Amino acid sequence: MSKITTELLLERAVPRSTRLRKIETLNLSKLQLKTGDLDPRLFSRLRHLQKLDLSDNLLDKFPNSLTLPDLRVLNCNNNKLEDVTALKQFPLLEELTYENNVYLTLNDDYKVMFLLQNLRLLNGKDITKLANHVRRVNSRKLTSKVTAHWEKFFRDQLPEKYTAEQVKSIKKKFLKSVQTNIVYGPSSLSEFTRWRVKMIAEEFLAYSLGLELNTDPEPEEKVDENEEESTESLREAAEDVGQVVYIYDPLVMVAPSKRKRNHSKTASRNKRSKTQANAEEEAEDVSAEPLHFLQCHSKGNSREDFRTQLWSCVFEPLLDCGARKDPIVSSSRTVATCGGESVCLIDCETGTVLKKYKVATEEFFSVAWTTLTMVINDSRKKSHNILAAAGRRGIVKLIHVAADFCYGEIKAHKKPIATVCFSPTRETHLFTASYDKRIALWDIGIPDCDYNFKASQLLVLEARSIPLRIALVPTCPDQYLLAGCEDSCFAWNIKLDKEQKSRPFEAIFQFPDEDGSMTTSHRVDGLAFLNDDVIVSKSSKPGCIYLWSWSRSFDAKGKGCQRTVPAVILAELEWSTTDLSYLTLSTCPPKDYVFCGDEKGSVWMYNLSNYTTAWSSAKGKRSEKRIPPTQILKWPELRANTEELTEVLINNVVSDPTFTYLVVLTSVNITAIWKKS
Description:
About 15% of the residues lie in helices and about 30% in strands. By secondary structure, it is of the alpha+beta class. It has 2 domains: about 5-210, Ribonuclease Inhibitor (Leucine-rich repeat, LRR (right-handed beta-alpha superhelix), Alpha-Beta Horseshoe), CATH 3.80.10.10; about 290-320 and about 330-675, YVTN repeat-like/Quinoprotein amine dehydrogenase (Methylamine Dehydrogenase, Chain H). The strands form 9 sheets. It has a 6-stranded mixed β-sheet with strand order 1-2-3-4-5-6, with no helix packed on it. Strands 22, 23, 24, 26, 27 and 31 form a 6-stranded mixed β-sheet that branches. Helix 4 crosses helix 6 (about 190-210). The model is unreliable at about 215-285 and about 320-330 (pLDDT under 50).
């Protein structure tokens, strides 16, 4: 259609007008408008426009010079906006809505709150309190950090008499350094923090060295010196924006002194080698402290719910390759958790529940992340994290987290799905393991800009019993998959160049029984790779976790299906003697750690870095004695409504790749977050 004309503006005015300068309210919604259609020369004549509706169009940004000096209300819902900084040209703006712009995030909310000093309502929420926090407390904190960074690292680099080239060089280094090293607030706001830090650093240099600013300086605000810097926590701040669904945690921790560093409780040995002694001495330096105990999966948001079981948690991958590289955060601190009717996204540092998805008729058992490169408008590509969640209904929900939108579902199985995982090499390939004794491989496709997608089933793996845990072999993730099942551990060939779509297992693994004989009949409810070769599995044998070699157990050149293969055991880990099932384990491969919870609320941690080198040898011998835990984190005393919570089972324990945070999921609807010191 044609671009905006004077006649169109007069016709769409509310009420209709005969002069552009008389228009106060203008409705330009549902016109398929693109950014190029907003002609600054024409809009500059709307000198008295106060309300503008641009919803349901195709705008990806705003021109920088629309010149609407009296604009108070702006509606940009249902567009394709990617940036909000151009909105600063409307300084009198009081009400702004831009919901359903899938590329805008919480970072953009904070940017407009800083840029628009008169803004009161954002997406229908009163943000007055939060905006004041962003403009005052947040800015004061960041300014202090920027100044300290200059004083500590850069002030002495600049000579008393400096040239323009020296100033230019040090400015470049300083701006890069502050954006890389200054961290403040939750990781979900890292983009906003870098944006503000750069702005503050440029202002600091302009004041200190007499440099010109790249952007117009922001108006200074007087700060109330008596204002408490902690008057508003980030949790409260996020609530005000309406981005957070947070159920207040009614848990009281008894004896605050117990929150101090919890040093390892190490089992005693009669004899220790020098290596083991060194390992223990090093382990004693490891300590962790509990940060948060959250009750955010309650059924019907009930504070009395201490029965919902929590099952799965996975840290969000960083968008650090491809479209966006994040030089600041070395590891994500955002984790997805599931249990009961809900899936939550939690910032581990602040304990803020960033988002919450609920399906009243579902019980979620598993979540998994992938990063899809999606094509946006003008054929540009951008990476986005997608979360898959599945459970009792046998349906996989696909959630575009940044857009806060569940864009589709896959009816994968007629029975519950126990676990899901994505291929590390093929971003759209998703494995689903179900109570129907099948593991299916799906291509979930890549959604277009309207979220249209096509999913297809590529493969079905037949199991003898219910698959509980699945793991792709790191050295050949497109060829072999392992599954721990109700009655054994199996391996399948999953190469897609084979014509056979439905496949039986290729190998079944034998493990030692309680009397030492080899057997295939045992439940495997924990399964993960510690590195490219070493597998960690937990079976029904009480008090034992096995470490075994994939390459030495499975001969890829062997012929025939359904072979019985003895697992080559490298070591056993000492663990609880409970016979309870489904208390699963996890690994942190970069740090050579294994984690497993028990029936008493404790987390058993094993640092195996002093063993892995020996195991990697082709002649590596099995460790004769069980390896005790490096550390046991004890469950602290927690009270809910004055009653102490007891009989806590640890269903799952997961750390981030850098082993900074440890997320513990329980049988009593509590997500516990520990931080390594």
